[in-house]
TrEMBL record:
It comes from Linum tenue. SUPFAM superfamilies: RNA-binding domain, RBD (SSF54928). This is RRM domain-containing protein. It comes from the Eukaryota. The keyword RNA-binding applies. Residues 186-207, 312-349 are annotated as: Disordered. One of its GO terms (biological process) is regulation of photoperiodism, flowering. Residues 16-97, 104-184, 354-432 form the RRM domain. One of its GO terms (cellular component) is ribonucleoprotein complex. It is found in: Cytoplasm. InterPro entries: Hud_Sxl_RNA, Nucleotide-bd_a/b_plait_sf, RBD_domain_sf, RRM_dom.
Amino acid sequence: MAEDNKEATPSGDESVKLFVGQVPKHMTEAQLLAMFQEFALVDEVNIIKDKTTRASRGCCFVLCPSRHEADKAVSACHNKKTLPGASSPLQVKYADGELERLEHKLFVGMLPKNVSEADLSDLFSKYGTIKDLQILRGSQQTSKGCAFLKYETKDQALAALETINGKHKMEGSNVPLVVKWADTEKERQARRAQKAQSQGSNMPNADLQHPSLFGALPMGYVPPYNGYGYQGPGSYGIMPYRLPPMQNQPGFHGMIPPINQGNALRGGIRPNLSPNMAPRNYGVPPASYVGSAYHPAVPGVQYPMTYPGGMMGHRPIGGSPSSASHQVSSSSSPGSSSGVTTSSGSQVEGPPGANLFIYHIPQEYGDQELANAFKGFGNVLSAKVFVDKATGFSKCFGFVSYDSPAAAQGAIAVMNGYQLSGKKLKVQLKRDNNKQSKPY
DNA sequence: TCATATT
C-alpha cells in the first residue's frame, strides 16, 4: 500500500486538539487515552485540573495526529458515550481556537475603501491558494476597509503575512496593509466583554460615567486587527504580531480607581452606614427607611433597591447588624457538620431539599448580593449567580444552598414572587437530577 | 429556567 500521497501540507502541524467534557473526575489520563484509542489515533490526553487544588475539573484535552482522526473521535464519542459516573454523555469538540488555527485565516486591515475582492485576490494569490476571501461591508455594501482571507496551508498564510504586513501599500493608499492572524472566537468574545465593560451603557445607572474620565479612555484605539496567532504545540512558533490586550494598555488601568472611588463616595449603597457617615445619598433614603419602606417583613434583606453607582462587580458588604449573620465565605461553622456533601471542588451543595434555584435575580447582583438576600433564612452554604462567559454579565439566575431543607422552605415562602428590582424573583427547589441513585 | 468545564 504505497501511501506516498503527500498533501500540500508539509509541516507536521496538522494535529488537532479536542476538548472533552463530562469526564468523571476520578478517571486518569491513561484510562482516557485507552478509551479514545478505541475510536481514533490519539497522541495524548491532558486532564484539565483546577489550578490550585489540582483536582480534575471534569474535562480534558485529547490530541489527535490529524483532522481525520479527530473527526473520528468526535463522531464516535460526542453525545454517544456516557462514562461511568457521569450524568450525561461525553461532549467532544474542537478545542477553542482549533478551527481558526486550522483554517489558516488572516485578517487584512487598512484596505482602501474602493478595493475589490479581485484586487485582493491578485495580491494575495501570489503566496498560495486562497480558499476563501471576503471584504467586510456595511449596509450599503460599503467596504469597512478590512477583509478575511483563508489559505490552504499555514505556510502560505505565513508567507503572505510576513511579506505584506506593514510593508505593502495598495494603489491609491499611503498606509501599508495590516495582516494578522484572525481572532479566535474566544478573542472576539473577550473584546466584546471588555467593550461592554468600558462603555458601561445598558447599566441601570449612568451617574458613574464621569465625562472627563471617559474622554481620556483610549476608546478610539480599538484596532480590529488586534489579534494574535495561536501558538499550539510545535506549530506556529513565535508570533511577533500580538498586541497587548486593552486592559494592559497605558491609561486604562489608571482610569479604574478614580471611577470606583467616585462610586464609593456616592454612598448610599451601604445601608448599614450610620446616616451621618454617609456623605450624601443623592435621593436615596437612609438605610433604615429603605429597609422598612421596601422590605417589610423580609428578614436579612437590607440593601437599597437602587445602586446609585453600582457597577456590576462587587460592592463592599460591611458587617451587618442583622440578627441572622451568617456569612458565606467563612463557612466553617463548627455546629453544623453532618449531611453536607463537601464534594471535591468549588460550590458546596446542601442536603436534598436544601438547594434553591432562583430566577429573575437583578442584573447587578453577584454571588455576594445573592447570599446577602437569602441569608436571613438559615445558614447559607453557597450562593452562585451565573455569569455569561463572554460578556461577564449576570444571566440573572443562580443557586443558593442551605444546610437544612427548612431554611430553603422558609426562603421559598418569603422570597418567591418577591420583587427585588423590576421583576419578581422565582424561588424554587433546585432540580435534583443525578445523585447516583442506585436501584439495586 | 437548573452547577457546561478550554490546561
